[in-house]
Specification:
The complex is a heterotrimer. Chain A is mainly alpha-helical. Chain A is built from 10 helices and 6 strands, in the order ααββββαααββααααα. Chain A is about 65% helix and about 5% strand. In chain A, strand 5 and strand 6 form a beta hairpin. In chain B, strands 1, 12, 13, 14, 15, 16 and 17 form a 7-stranded mixed beta sheet that branches. The longest helix of chain B is centred in the last third of the chain and has 18 residues. The termini of chain B are far apart. In chain C, about 75% of the residues lie in helices and about 0% in strands. In chain C, helix 5 packs across helix 8 and helix 7 packs antiparallel against helix 8. Classes of the chains: A mainly alpha, B alpha+beta, C mainly alpha. Chains in contact: A-B, A-C, B-C. Chains A and B meet through helix 5 of A and helix 9, helix 11, helix 13 and strand 15 of B.
């Protein structure tokens, strides 16, 4: 339960990011503020302070007050506000990608498992192909290429800078991880006596699909869902860390870690805080996933079996 | 693509920022670190003593500092080790392994830009019409394979430029027969320069016959493309196999993405202290798998001797405070700028280009780069070390020779007048730290001016190709450029002029796609004048610089200085200002 | 059984073929990517560009280019990188493989022992505070982004505390071959090992514990207990043994994926010149021959490993053969 509370706190906090930035911190987390100043203890100090040696400059560190609570990044932007906005992007990408992955996976898993024959064989081979890539390599390859020109499939055109691009890429690479177990589940449900009996009696396929199979498969997908969100958030952060995920000036926790590399030695808090936020979110999502599993699928037949390899 | 004639007379280099080629330092204001006080004194005593004996003797032979391994970290090392192919990726080290007829003097200070004879016995004077150059080749110089260097090797080396082809083989198309070699890939493969280069191996003479006058011809012969290789060198990029060396060092092994090792060339005997002095370290090892941040730490911890990458901005405070003795700053003629694509809205409107120029807070950008000690604010195209340079800054609060502050009201007014407010602008950036930081600044600025701005980050390998191709309509990107040597050539024609503009090509150095017919006419006139009245040409180039600056195809930002960070054990630090210069690590002591 | 294995191998080949076509198309069909430009050097003239295009056959139709490339990778085994001209790609991978293997092998040793230890401990301490505590810690391990952990480890061991006795032994980032300097090999890799294994320790410990716990009610455990075998023996001999089936099959897949280049983030953060880093750099530089070869190499490992696991499963459980 605690995990749910923590997750809700994170979600609400990130949703309130604009309020925090405009009302509390009164800083613009997306505008460079290279020559701005703030007042600390009655003294006016620059946000970016030139070093005494005249070489380089150091962004202000944590002030522990409303403005620049966690200090500034190299652009003079408020790290705390960016952390909240970044969380919003990370959560949006994570959830949306997980939805994409689970939705597509459920559809094609059902299709393959239920139809059998050529359709099943084709889908299975396609899944095998996607699956044969180490997941990060596939995501990196797609991102590198799609960032050049964006993506357009028929009427849908996705701009390279859009959040939808990482959503689609990450959702896509995780499809086999859900579709394979879904297909397996469909196969096993089909083999159950009462379903076989229904087929033998000539039940209508559609009715069978929605009345018998889907209700049996759905809990498994719901169990996977929170873990999928966690995996998608981690993948997003890795892509953004390699600067091919969420594109600046938009922020995500991954881009903050990536940007924080540029100040890791002087202001390690930037990277560390974003990393901790990811870790906490993944942690509560995993705990939540366990909870959901215990509630819906106590026998835990459908664990996200090959999840480990997704994350190295 | 018909403009190769103008190009053939121009030497320029323009590099994507992300590919950090940081070792191009000029030594105007060198503050050399001292390894240790006694060592430095000893050195000057050494030098004084030997100078008295023989100005050309190999001083390293009896030096206590001779020997040891120079450890270099360089993540940016990514270019070819073939001098015929590499274009200013590894020139700083190819300079130590191979030699041309001429070179720039291997000394610190402004004198390091002087051309001196290397494998030639002296610099020849051309015939009165300026078309024939006859060299006497220095006898007795051997390749690391034991073969002697002969005039015919030089001829084959230049022919190899066309057979490969080298990146700018057209530099040598001015030779008789060279125009034919440059005409098609097929002709290049069979290139024969028998008319253009006459080599007499018995008399050790080499004669170059030119089609037309070329004021830069001698400088071109000093570039690594013309470093001599044995005549039987295959006309194919050598890859990882080191080519025969003539210099004090030769490459022992090269593993791309991992390491490169140079050892002493056993056949090397110093022939000219000015041109190619012997080095102190026995081995020079490059670790090329280490990121700049880790590399900086290694130098700080004494695990490496020099970092050839740029020091990350984050570490400048730390190292300048903790290791002030181990850093040196050298002026550098690189002009960093934002490219504005003059063929794509909104930057096809000169008012918008000027508005960005007025609005840019150049001081803030210099701070991003590392502070005023490392970057000098500029508003114009030409770098300060140029003969035609005259300080000029129209885009500031109080226009004059220098920049003082951004003029936002003026910028806003120009944007309003252009009626382009609300348009989309995408800045093409790379994952590189500085590029990202500057691009982010401009996103902010453009938003402030009323544009819908965003960034598109491409991997550095792709980015430079991408912004060159006019088909991609890249609106804005960061770049820098510098001349290969300060000569009033026609670079204004190449980097921001019609001569360099190749539509729908990825070999288009004119990233701004800026081509103004009126300026072009003036440029062509100045090029002509170069040959007849060089003094008048200089004035004309100054005028063109101002015209182009006013038309604002760029937002010129700053002229960079270069910072070297060496380990505490390194002594005798010196930096050479030429294009093949920088920290002369072979002259440094690690013992 | 043999028919199943043959079918599996046939589909493996189909997958590898389709994969190579897709990768080729992804990189050649994208506008803005121009391999000739990369080969020509940074400031090449249009003439040079044209010459290179014709020399390397980049002006020929795509199917021809694809066949030429595959012929060079698979049949002639003679293919050169575009970005680092003259560099043979296959020897490059052969040189990178030991680095990756050293990294993954060391991490695997840590993660096997640590996760079995933690899993067993937690299972046997069920009902005490230690079980949830150990599982909580494991979960934290699963939650840490590996690249971030690597960065923080570098910050601590290379800079912040490098001068203290704790980490003064930590060598600079990079790799030293085992054959050259065994001690250097170990000290260079020990921190990457730990960082890479954290995730897997956490994950495997949890899997193991839950498998052991869920076997509590299985017949064989009850039978063993009823025979009066000690608790410890039941746990080690019976419960652990059966739970290891999942463990081992998971391990096979993870190990293969990591050897295939899945450890790239760790390799990038620690500057280890392994297969993952090679693939990443080739992707970043769009070095097509290297991308093709590394992807095929990686896919080969994964496909073989998953085929083996499937065949193993089929052997153990005939029902899945039709799947």
């Amino acid at each position: 339960m605690l995990s749910l509370v923590v997750l809700l706190v994170i979600i609400i906090a990130t949703l309130l990011a604009p309020v925090y930035a405009s009302r509390i911190a009164k800083t613009d987390p997306f505008a460079s503020n290279l020559s701005g100043t703030i007042v600390i203890n009655g003294q006016t100090v620059p946000v970016i302070q030139p070093n005494p040696t005249g070489l380089g400059s150091t962004p202000i560190g944590p002030t522990w007050q409303a403005q620049y609570f966690l200090g500034a990044d190299t652009q003079g932007r408020d790290v705390a506000a960016r952390l909240l906005y970044g969380g919003r992007a990370s959560l949006i990408v994570g959830v949306a990608a997980a939805v994409v992955a689970c939705l597509i996976a459920t559809i094609i898993g059902l299709l393959a498992g239920f139809s059998g024959g050529m359709i099943d064989a084709t889908i299975s081979r396609l899944l095998d192909i996607v699956w044969a890539f180490p997941i990060y390599l596939l995501a990196i390859a797609l991102s590198t290429v799609l960032l050049v020109q964006g993506l357009s499939i028929g009427p849908i055109a996705v701009d390279p800078g859009s959040l939808w691009l990482p959503v689609i890429i990450i959702g896509f690479v995780f499809v086999p991880y859900v579709a394979r177990p879904v297909r397996g589940e469909v196969l096993s449900v089909r083999r159950r006596d009462y379903v076989e009996a229904a087929i033998a009696q000539g039940a209508r396929r559609r009715r069978l699909l929605f009345k018998e199979i889907l209700p049996n498969v759905l809990p498994s997908v719901i169990v996977i869902f929170p873990l999928m969100i966690a995996a998608c958030i981690l993948t997003e952060s890795a892509l953004s860390f390699l600067s091919i995920g969420v594109q600046p000036p938009q922020a995500s926790w991954g881009t903050i870690i990536n940007g924080g590399q540029a100040q890791l030695y002087t202001r390690p808090m930037v990277s560390i805080s974003a990393g901790l936020m990811i870790a906490i979110t993944i942690l509560v999502l995993n705990i939540l996933g366990d909870g959901v599993r215990d509630a819906l699928d106590p026998r835990a037949k459908l664990r996200l079996r090959r999840r480990g390899r997704a994350q190295a | 693509m018909t403009t190769n004639t103008t190009k053939s007379r121009s030497l320029f280099a323009l590099l994507a920022l992300a590919v950090t080629a940081c070792v191009l330092a000029a030594c105007g204001s060198s503050t050399a670190p001292q390894g240790s006080e006694p060592a430095t004194t000893a050195a000057s005593a050494d030098t004084a003593a030997t100078a008295a004996a023989d100005a050309n003797a190999d001083v390293t032979l009896d030096s206590p500092h001779r020997g040891g391994t120079m450890e270099i970290v360089w993540n940016g090392f990514g270019s070819s080790i073939d001098p015929g192919v590499d274009y200013d990726g590894n020139w700083t080290l190819l300079r130590l392994t191979n030699d041309g007829l001429l070179t720039w003097k291997r000394v610190a200070g402004p004198d390091g830009n002087t051309l001196v004879p290397n494998l030639a016995e002296e610099i020849p004077t051309p015939t009165a019409d300026g078309l024939i150059y006859t060299f006497k080749v220095r006898p007795g110089v051997k390749f690391s394979t034991g073969q002697e260097v002969k005039p015919s090797d030089f001829k084959a080396t230049i022919e190899r430029q066309f057979k490969l082809p080298g990146p700018v083989s057209s530099f040598y198309a001015v030779l008789l027969g060279g125009d034919k070699c440059a005409s098609t890939p097929k002709a290049g493969k069979k290139c024969d320069l028998s008319l253009g280069i006459v080599a007499d191996d018995a008399a050790m003479t080499l004669t170059f016959n030119l089609l037309k006058q070329d004021p830069d011809f001698l400088q071109k012969l000093a570039l690594p493309f013309a470093y001599v290789l044995p005549a039987n060198t295959p006309p194919k990029e050598t890859g990882v196999t080191p080519l025969p060396a003539t210099g004090p060092y030769m490459i022992e092994s090269f593993k791309p993405g991992e390491s490169m090792v140079m050892v002493r060339n056993p056949e090397f005997v110093q022939w000219s202290k000015d041109a190619q002095p012997n080095g102190y370290p026995d081995r020079i090892e490059y670790n090329i798998a280490i990121l700049p941040n880790a590399g900086t730490t290694q130098v700080a911890n004494g695990q490496a001797d020099w970092i050839a990458d740029q020091i990350p901005a984050d570490r400048l405070g730390e190292i300048s405070e903790k290791y002030p003795e181990q850093i040196a700053i050298n002026a550098n003629p690189q002009v960093y700028h934002m490219v504005l694509n003059a063929t794509t809205p909104p930057f096809d409107d000169v008012r918008v280009r000027q508005a960005i120029n007025y609005a840019t807070d150049r001081a803030a950008i210099v701070q991003l780069w590392g502070g005023p000690k490392l970057g000098q604010i500029t508003c114009q195209i030409l770098p300060p070390n140029f003969p035609s340079y005259e300080a000029y800054c129209p885009f500031t609060l109080n226009p004059g020779p220098t920049w003082s502050a951004p003029d936002m009201p003026k910028a806003q007014q120009l944007v309003d007048a252009s009626g382009t407010k609300g348009q989309k602008v995408v800045i093409i950036s790379t994952p590189d730290e500085v590029t990202t930081a500057v691009s982010l600044y401009f996103v902010s600025l453009l938003k402030q001016l009323g544009y819908e701005a965003s960034i598109k980050t491409l991997q550095s390998g792709v980015q430079y190709t991408y912004v060159q191709d006019s088909a991609n309509k890249a609106q804005m990107s960061m770049s820098y450029w510098y001349p290969d040597y300060p000569a009033p050539a026609d670079f204004l024609d190449i980097v921001v002029g019609c001569g360099g503009y190749h539509e729908n090509s990825t070999a288009n150095p004119n990233l701004s796609m800026f081509c103004d017919p009126a300026i072009d006419a003036k440029t062509k006139a100045a090029e002509q004048m170069q040959l007849t009245d060089p003094a008048a040409a200089v004035a004309m180039w100054t005028e063109i610089d101002k015209l182009v600056t006013d038309a604002a195809p760029w937002v010129p930002l700053f002229v960079a200085s270069n910072l070297d960070f060496v380990s505490s054990r390194v002594g005798n630090y010196q930096s050479n200002p030429s294009v093949v210069g920088g920290f002369m690590f072979e002259q440094a002591w690690v013992q | 059984m043999i028919a199943f294995a043959l079918r599996r191998i046939a589909s493996m080949i189909v997958v590898l073929f389709a994969l190579s076509v897709i990768v080729f198309l992804i990189f050649f069909a994208t506008p803005g990517i121009d391999p000739a430009r990369q080969m020509a050097g940074r400031n090449a003239t249009p003439e040079t560009l044209a010459a290179i295009r014709s020399n390397f056959g980049l002006d020929r139709p795509l199917p021809v280019q694809y066949l030429t490339m595959m012929d060079r990778i698979v049949v002639k085994r003679d293919i050169e990188s575009y970005s680092n001209r003259g560099v043979q790609v296959i020897p490059q991978i052969i040189a990178a493989a030991p680095v990756t293997f050293s990294l993954v092998f060391g991490a695997a040793v840590i993660w096997i022992f640590a996760s079995i230890g933690i899993g067993l401990l937690a299972a046997s301490l069920r009902g005490t505070i230690w079980d949830p505590l150990l599982m909580g810690v494991s979960l934290i391990g699963v939650a840490l982004p590996v690249f971030w952990l690597g960065e923080v480890a570098n910050l601590v061991t290379q800079q912040r505390f490098h001068d203290t006795f704790l980490f003064s032994w930590v060598p600079p980032l990079g790799y030293v071959p085992l054959t050259e300097d065994p001690i250097g090999w170990f000290t260079h890799l020990v921190i990457p090992w730990l960082v890479l294994s954290v995730l897997f320790v956490g994950f495997y410990a949890r899997v193991l514990r839950s498998d052991i716990v869920s076997s509590e009610n299985e017949d064989y455990v009850r039978t063993a207990r009823s025979k009066g075998i000690t608790e410890r023996r039941v746990l080690l001999r019976h419960q652990l043994r059966t739970s290891m089936i999942t463990f081992v099959s998971l391990f096979g897949l993870d190990f293969a994926a990591l050897v295939a280049g899945g450890a790239l983030l760790v390799e990038v953060v620690f500057g280890l010149p392994g297969v993952g880093r090679l693939t990443y750099l080739s992707l970043a530089g769009l070095d097509l021959p290297v991308i093709m070869t590394t992807v095929l190499y990686g896919a080969f490992f994964i496909v073989v490993a998953s085929a083996l696991v499937d065949i193993l499963y089929a052997f153990l459980d005939p029902r899945t053969r039709t799947a």
